[in-house]
Amino acid sequence: MSHAALDPATLLLAVVLAFLANDLWRVLGVLFSARIDEDSGLFAWVRMVATALVAALVAKLLLYPAGELALAPLWLRLAAVSCGVVGYAVARRSLAAGILAGEIALIGGVWALGA
């Protein structure tokens, strides 16, 4: 195995490229966020597109799961999402509470089924 990957210049280049690929956009977002009107049509559209993408990802995971999630039956996956929605609503729109409730339901259901 070559030690070229441990070269400080290579490591610095990797960090800079990783920053440019990821964190640069976050920094620009922070810099420009003060100028964004949250009530604008464009911002509403961006919010709706982001919500639709998350909904599509959840639907894909529910209907066409991969890996270990495929061991859980569809009814259990749907019940876990329902528990998550209820947890979210009961905890006054707390995303963390919704995720936790859904995870507990899914993990508990899989454990109870012995899958």
Automatic annotation (TrEMBL):
A Pfam short name: AzlD
Source organism superkingdom: Bacteria
Annotated transmembrane regions: 45-63, 70-89, 95-114
Alphabetically ordered keywords of this record: Membrane, Transmembrane, Transmembrane helix
Entry protein name: Branched-chain amino acid transport
Species: Methylopila jiangsuensis
Organism classification: Bacteria, Pseudomonadati, Pseudomonadota, Alphaproteobacteria, Hyphomicrobiales
